């Protein structure tokens, strides 16, 4: 049984409802989420995207997959699909960017993990179990060193981000490396990338086969599939451990079947990177393991392997890789690994690195010193994650006992193999449109809950998802909404207080009580909706429900501040990069937007959009440039107290003169923070920066030059659209960590 929205209903909503596009909204949508419709030779329009997304989600309801399906259920879900369509179409709320891109596609049907953007895995030997990938030389119940690396590789190639833990508690479970492996990589002359592959270290396949005895080696021919790449890497890793594979001192991997660079990739989209990045990755991973022969792998070794995998995934310029590495704060080699500039430039850029602190950790001076230099490491407090939901609800021992880390942006606490599962509500817009917030949060909860009933590819994921049913209902545009609704920011001021443990004086924040009451009421709506829907479905309630995601691309759709963050400035130039053949470019030029060639990249154009912050006219407005580091910490605490039972994604920016305050603030908030990261405020001090603050006068001058609505002009001109355009410089969050595609 399939729920379908009627054409008549969609036409009615299109005539009655105006989507709340921001100044960048429609253009951002068109270049990021609109999918190609092959029979029509064009990209989707917004109503077609929303219809696809809603139908893809509503049909995950497990009651539709029983026999028989009751008429009452079909009627109920049909009506819900209509309300959900109206909610998303109006842009009062949206699913995550990943869902806007994937939901309702053939890819969603074929790939179990498609709807979830980010994951977590612990780097320790694990069994593959009943997963879609089990290397041919292993029994599925056999713990393998390669398994977490395979999980990470697989999810990165599906377009997800992956957090991973290289804490001592995990790394010490890996047996010592017992074998030095000779690696030969072969390629046939028939492969179009033959010459480049030889240069990267491969050998001619025909010559090798003629001169060698295959039975003396462990040979594997890599299929031209995602699974084939993962299995090849798994084989290479496990060959270094005698407990995994006998007699594997010589491994031969034939990459002849891998399609050439530039060939189309069906399903996921884009073009192939060819075998060269894969060859380079295998060689580099083998060197890391050979250097550890006779010793135990270190946190740095394991992080390097994960980073080399991420580098390979990014190499095709089709997928964006996002990783966060979690290590121990007293693991000096891990904390300082990015200070090796050669390794940093080669592959260590592929992850953001954070440390797992405990309640008794008090060496924040050293952490703060490292942060002041390069913005790392971030902080993750597993004790707070495991034993607290919202801080307003007090300590709840073991409420999230299986949590071991976070997704790359830090807003969701995750167990081994678990994904984040997000839906975003824009409270200011929803209230302005007259929506019942109880209905908004109910629709959001039910959408996210259905995602947990997808068919997941990895057994470890299926196990933890079924147990936790974790969801992450987020709010965005928080700063804009609070100023307009309550007349002042979330933090009303500070009072002097004394730390009872150390006796240190500190500034205690004063919370906006009206906002606290309203946000608390929102939280109760979410929990109530989850309890009701869980009872209907006969599944466990979600272990946690709420979060604040960083947002970014999604918030640009509606033109609001991103997540909990403060707007960059009152008025700014937002620069967006386009492939030079994009049919949007002539439309934007005719509409009056300034366009110039990208000074950094070939075949790329930069379009300048004048943007006004959502709450720019309010007297309480403060920009990211002006807000103090102390108020940012306090704002995160407010949301962690009254809203987020998961975590709050927060990238706190600081000016050079504020660096001396970092250690004290980390110490002050040590018992009231789950995860946070800090970055020096960068401003816009380089050519064609993504954001550049401007005066009100310049903003009005630029706006006056815009002669037409881009969406309307686009429909009028109807220029021929080009399939498989590359999205340049795209990410789905303010920190650039999480990829959409």
Account of the 3D structure:
By secondary structure, the chain is α/β, with parallel strands linked by helices. 38% of the residues lie in helices and 16% in strands. It has 28 helices and 27 strands. The protein has a seven-stranded mixed β-sheet with strand order 4-7-12-13-14-26-25. Strands 3-17-18-21 form a four-stranded mixed β-sheet. The chain has a four-stranded parallel β-sheet with strand order 9-8-11-10. Strand 15 and strand 16 form a beta hairpin. Helix 7 (147-157) runs parallel beside helix 13. The longest helix is centred in the last third of the chain and has 25 residues, at 513-537. The relative contact order is 0.12. The model is unreliable at 728-732 (pLDDT under 50).
Structural class: alpha/beta
β-strand number? 27
Q: How are the strands ordered across the major sheet?
A: 4-7-12-13-14-26-25
Q: Compute the average pLDDT.
A: 92
> What is the alpha-carbon Rg in Å?
26 Å
Note the beta-strand portion.
15-25%
Name the poorly predicted regions: 728-732
Distance linking N and C termini:
29 Å
Please tell me what the overall shape is: globular
Approximate helicity band: 25-40%
Comma- or semicolon-separated keywords:
alpha/beta; 28 helices
Task: Compile the SSE list and pairings.
Blueprint: H1 7-16, H2 25-32, E1 36-37, E2 42-43, H3 46-58, H4 71-90, E3 93-95, H5 97-102, H6 106-110, E4 118-122, E5 126-127, E6 143-144, H7 147-157, E7 161-165, H8 168-171, E8 182-187, H9 194-199, E9 203-204, H10 205-211, E10 218-221, H11 226-238, E11 250-254, H12 276-291, H13 299-314, E12 322-327, H14 332-335, H15 341-346, E13 352-357, H16 364-374, E14 378-381, H17 382-387, E15 405-406, E16 413-414, E17 422-425, H18 427-432, H19 437-451, H20 459-468, E18 472-475, H21 478-486, E19 491-498, E20 505-511, H22 513-537, E21 546-547, H23 553-558, E22 571-579, H24 584-591, E23 594-597, E24 604-612, H25 629-642, E25 651-654, H26 662-668, E26 675-680, E27 691-693, H27 696-704, H28 710-717
Parallel strand pairs: 4-7, 7-12, 8-9, 8-11, 10-11, 12-13, 13-14, 17-18, 18-21, 25-26
Antiparallel strand pairs: 1-2, 3-17, 5-6, 14-26, 15-16, 19-20, 22-24, 22-27, 23-24
